[in-house]
From TrEMBL:
<keyword id="KW-0479">Metal-binding</keyword>
<keyword id="KW-0904">Protein phosphatase</keyword>
<feature type="domain" description="PPM-type phosphatase">
    <location>
        <begin position="3"/>
        <end position="236"/>
    </location>
</feature>
<dbReference type="InterPro" id="IPR001932">
    <property type="entry name" value="PPM-type_phosphatase-like_dom"/>
</dbReference>
<keyword id="KW-0460">Magnesium</keyword>
<dbReference type="GO" id="GO:0004722">
    <property type="term" value="F:protein serine/threonine phosphatase activity"/>
</dbReference>
<dbReference type="GO" id="GO:0046872">
    <property type="term" value="F:metal ion binding"/>
</dbReference>
<dbReference type="InterPro" id="IPR015655">
    <property type="entry name" value="PP2C"/>
</dbReference>
<dbReference type="InterPro" id="IPR036457">
    <property type="entry name" value="PPM-type-like_dom_sf"/>
</dbReference>
<dbReference type="GO" id="GO:1902531">
    <property type="term" value="P:regulation of intracellular signal transduction"/>
</dbReference>
<protein>
    <recommendedName>
        <fullName>protein-serine/threonine phosphatase</fullName>
        <ecNumber>3.1.3.16</ecNumber>
    </recommendedName>
</protein>
<dbReference type="Pfam" id="PF00481">
    <property type="entry name" value="PP2C"/>
</dbReference>
<comment type="similarity">
    <text>Belongs to the PP2C family.</text>
</comment>
<keyword id="KW-0378">Hydrolase</keyword>
<keyword id="KW-0464">Manganese</keyword>
Amino acid sequence: MEDFYVAEYQIHRNHELGLFAIYDGHLGHSVPDYLKRNLFNNILKEPGFFTNPSNAIRKAYQETDQTILAKAPELGSGGSTAVTAILVDGLRLLVANIGDSRAVLSEAGKARQLSVDHEPSNASEHKNIRDRGGFVLNMPGDVPRVDGQLAVARAFGDKNLKDHLSAEPDIVDEQLSPDAEFLILASDGLWKVMKNQHAVDLIKKIKNPKNAAKRLTDEALALKSMDDISCVVVRFV
C-alpha cells in the first residue's frame, strides 16, 4: 500500500481552507509521504495564492517535483500521482491533478469529473511523451506504459523516466453551485472498477463522509479491485 491522503481544515490569512488530497505512489512510499507533508505548504506559501491560485498551484507543483528529483538519493527513484482539492471559505473549489487519481463532484445527484486522467493511451499525452523522446508500449493483456514501465503520463518524481514525463497539473477553479453536494477524491484502485455515476449513487444518501468513503472502498473491494484503494469524501451539505 503506497497511498497517502490528506483531509484537514486550517485558517490561513483569515480564510478557512479545507485541504484534501490523494497521493498514489509507485516504487515505494517515500514520494507520496513527502507530498503529504509538503505539497500544501508549498502551495499556500506562494504569495499569489489568493489573487491567482491556478498559477500558484502550478508553480508549487513544478517546484515540488524539482525538489523530489533533487532528493532522489534520499527519497528513491519512485514517484506518485496526486489529486488535490482546496475549499476556500466553503465557497470556492480548487482542484488540481497529475496522473490517474480522480476528483468527482456530485451536483443534484449528477456526477461531474473535475480532474483529468493522464493515461499514456490518451492522444495528447502520447504525443507529449513522444515529443520528449519517450515511447508508449502496449503489450497484450497489459495497460499502455511509458517506456514500457509506468502506466501514467504525468507524475511527481520518477527520476529515471522524468525526461519523458510531465508534472504539469490540470487545474479547475470554480465557485460551488447551490447544487453541489459532495466531492469524491480517490486513487485509481477505485475508478478501475467503478464509474463516476455509480460512485455518486452509492453514497448520495450517506451523510457521514467517513462512512461514505468506507462504503466506496468496500464496494471497490467487492468488485475485485486489485490496486491500492484510497478515498476521501467531502460533504458540502
